[in-house]
Amino acid sequence: MSDKYIHRLLAASPVLETLGLMLKGKPERVHVCSQSLRCLLLGLSKVEEFTVVDAPLLERIIFFKPPYGGTDCVRFKIASAPKLRVIGYLHARIHKLQIGNIIIKPDTIASPCTLVPSVKILAVKVNFVVFGEVKMLASFLRCFPSVGTLHIEVLGNS
User: Fold this and answer.
1) Domain F-box/LRR-repeat protein 15/At3g58940/PEG3-like LRR, which positions (predicted)?
2) pLDDT digits 0-9 by tens, 75-104
3) Which of 77, 86, 39, 75 is CA-nearest to residue 58?
4) Is the predicted pLDDT of residue 57 greater than 90, yes or no?
5) pLDDT digits (tens, 9 = 90+) for 14-55
6) SS3 143
7) Nearest to 97, CA basis, from 60, 144, 131, 56
């Protein structure tokens, strides 16, 4: 299934509120634009880039399967999702977060361009033995200043 088929599916489903995508092969990039979607469940095994382009009602994004095979990271871009309240499970090593045009790095300082204040619940996976992942967790938290509930899955031998 290519990105254009996903786009057509969303365009042809104007009342679709929940979508679960389990993508094992292509596409390498997935762009979501939906005026009705409220929840996305994503298993992006070989997807290199996932972008929420325009989803005004989107409230939840849940990554339920990490990438494997051809990719070791997924760029996760949030362009426009003003009602986004829940994100999980962001993996500190695998997910490369981008908000607008800014790529979030371990040393990213919070600014109005890097904030998503609508997010109230955040779930992350982190290996506390890997210092880079701990720094990435801190950057994630700076991007979501209104998080009231934080779920952490500890990975590795920590």
Assistant:
1) 1-152
2) 889 999 999 999 988 888 888 899 988 989
3) 39
4) yes
5) 898 998 877 666 667 788 888 999 998 887 666 778 888 899
6) helix
7) 144
φ, ψ for residue 112 (rounded to 5)? -55, -25
Concatenate the DSSP letters of all residues of 75-135 into one string: EEEESS-TT--EEEEEETTTEEEEETTEEP-TTPPP-GGG--TT--EEEEEE-TTSHHHHH
| Distance (Å, whole) CA 82 – CA 113 | 13
Residues 6+ apart with CB under 8 A from 52: 32, 58, 61, 77, 78, 79, 80, 81, 84
Coil, helix or strand for 145? coil
**Omega within 30 of 0 (cis) for the link into 27:** yes
The C-alpha R_g of the chain, in whole angstroms, comes to 15
Contacts (Cβ under 8 Å, ≥6 apart) of 109: 142
Say how far apart CA 81 and CA 98 lie, in whole Å: 13
88: left (phi over 0), alpha (psi -120 to 50) or beta: beta
